[in-house]
Amino acid sequence: MRKMLIIMLTGLILIGVVFSGCKTKQRTLYIFNWSDYIDPELLQQFEKANNCKVKYSTYDSNENMLTKIKSSRESFDVVFPSGDHVSILAAASMLEPLDRKKLSNFPNLDPTLLKMAESFDPGNQYSVPYFWGLTGLIYHKKNVPAEVIADSSWNILANPYFNAKNRVTMLDDAREVVGAALISKGFDLNDTSENALKAASEVLAVWDKNITQYDSDSYKNEVPDGTTWMAQAYNGDALQQMAENPELGFILPKEGSSLWMDNMVILKSSSNKDLAYKFLDFLMDAENARINAQYTQYATPNKAAGDMLDPEIKNNVLIYPPRSYLDKCFMIKSLGDKIKAIDTVFEKIKMF
Ligand code: N2P
């Protein structure tokens, strides 16, 4: 009898040890995404539904993301590169080819946008579109008079109103900054010809007199608090600030703008691929994608989610501009080695 009791007790203790072991062995998914680019409640829901931990880190440019995933000892499972960087990562054999069978919500995606995504990821082999958007100018109405904005051109950045005031910023992003200058002069944002880059450099030299810094994050606090009066900004980030503060405005310049698509990819080096697939599929669920699009104020490539959006988001022309505006925009393409010419123009401008 006593023997029996000892065996039972030992059994119970063993079960306890196994269960507490399970708890500490909870799986962890490492996500690396742009800042302010997800509804944090979705992360909690995912953790709960999958009994796992999400370690979430953020970046503010594709270049920083690339440097970190190449050099970091920390390894990430899921990353959100823009289209041109999907091509770069795929060419470097860093991406896991996606198994559609594990992505039951894939049919929710808009076929037209999937087709567009094929320009950087043929066959949609490695990436799933996450959000798309455009870049424009955010400003504080108290600090920038309506007459200055009325021109609605990228060249507002050269307006004498800003001279010697140190109140304007641009993104820390070569493609966006040089791209804005190229578009303002009537060139394609992907044009790396000598002629085009000479014109862009000249424009940037003029704008630069008014630019305090090239930074992709600080404008989100500094335009609302008045430190910065106007900033080149991603549309969703600007709209998130505007929702909190009616004194802020945002324009998509009349000449056109950059058009980008950011995407979910699983890194080949991921040691947690099953959980990574679950995360992609979770974000592609129509209701989750709707919640995420409403929170971030970026345009969703998820058709099922798009159909369910609140009308004020769906009809917001700063998120979903009319065809006539989109026709003036340029998708940021991967330029291979020619990217060096754009980087050189940007580095020179930043140096002065
Ligand atoms: C999110 C910015 C993402 C847009 N804060 C850049 N592609």
Describe the structure.
By secondary structure, this protein is an alpha/beta fold. The protein folds into two domains: 183 residues, 3-Layer(aba) Sandwich (D-Maltodextrin-Binding Protein, domain 2); 150 residues, D-Maltodextrin-Binding Protein, domain 2. It is built from 16 helices and ten strands. Strands 1, 2, 3, 4, 5, 6, 7, 8, 9 and 10 form a ten-stranded mixed sheet that branches. Helix 2 links the parallel strand 1 and strand 2. The longest helix has 23 residues. It is globular. About 2% of the residues have low confidence. Bound molecules: pentane-1,5-diamine (N2P). The site of pentane-1,5-diamine has 10 residues, from strand 9.
Structure characteristics:
single chain; about 350 residues; alpha/beta; D-Maltodextrin-Binding Protein, domain 2; ten-stranded mixed sheet; 16 helices; about 45% helix; about 15% strand; globular; binds pentane-1,5-diamine
